[in-house]
Amino acid sequence: MAHIAGCGLVTLLSSIGEVRFIGISFLRIGFVLLAAFLGYHLGAPQIAEMEFPWLGMTIGITLAAGIIAIERGAQKIPPKVLLGGLLGLIVSLLLGHLLTISLLTIPWIGDPDNIALHGLVHAGLAYIGIVLGARKGAEFDLNEYKKLFRGEAKEENPKLLDTSVIIDGRVADICETGFLEGTLIIPQFVLRELQQIADSSDPIKRNRGRRGLDILQRIQRSVDVHVKILEQDFPKIRDVDSKLVALGKELGAKILTNDFNLNKVAELQGVPVLNVNQLANAVRPVVLPGELMSVHILKEGKEYGQGVAYLDDGTMVVVDSARKYVGRNVDVAVTSVLQTTAGRMIFTRLKDDFEREESLESKVGR
Prior knowledge:
The protein starts with a helix and ends with a helix. By secondary structure, the chain is of the alpha/beta class. The strands form 2 sheets. A 6-stranded mixed beta sheet has the order 6-10-11-9-8-7. The protein contains 13 helices and 11 strands. Among the domains are: 86-136, no CATH class; 155-281, Rossmann fold; 292-365, CATH 2.40.50.140. The protein has helices spanning 2-47, 55-74, 79-102, 115-138, 142-150, 163-168, 170-177, 188-198, 203-220, 240-251, 260-268, 276-282, 351-365, and strands at residues 159-161, 182-187, 225-230, 254-257, 273-275, 292-296, 299-300, 307-310, 316-320, 329-340, 343-350. α1 (2-47) packs antiparallel against α2 (55-74), α7 packs parallel to α9 and α8 packs across α9.
């Protein structure tokens, strides 16, 4: 029953679309006929002596065809661009009228009755007004002007979230601690990519996508941040990361990510980046050579006799001669710290071995 109803609805919508198309077609045909009729009757008296009685009709049909072509092309233009171009045209024509009234009255500039000069001034300003108005209209954000009239403050220091940092989840913890403030902008194309991952047939991808949606809900409940879904898109750009960079340039926003490649691309194009991984490395506790700590040996290391442990923040700890202590807690002493692009590694020795070596060195020094 539901299937039949759905088919009926589709058929009804198709019929409405066909009726609308036929109506527009008849309207266009009527407009062409009217233009031909008016062109013939308006032009025939002036050109009757030239023995071209159909020239007026031809001109009328040509003009009508040109207007219809402009109308069909304008359907593909976004409304903001059309509105901006129209406002630019109106302002430029008013400015042209003022210029022709004021400047052309000066004798050494031009004749105020010169129609060609009037037309040149108006045409030039109209072109500039349409082009600038259309370009600025594409950047027009009605929400910002609504906030201006309501007395709301403009968003300061906006941040764009990419898909990877949402799925990662640490950004929600940062928001809840209050270290991240302001407006977090989630573009619609990022939300769409997240939804596609959540709908994936692969269970791992599906779980990651659903985790990302849950993280967004956590962020929205945070007190110190405001989450804004932005509809703006870049249809000519396919890659989501490239869209983020382009949007960051346009809004003057920072990109919040943990993607190393996106970080590099954005920095090359002058877009500021807040990398969660860099933040995590920066807030890790400082470990100095000689410092003692207790670790749990989880597995064997790459080199002979080594054991590997991990701190609570995920830092790898390599322990010499600890292979036999796998699965046990041991006290170790730090010998050196290595910072790599992948993170930080701490090299240690067993506490007893370290103290024994220290005592031998002190005896030799005496």
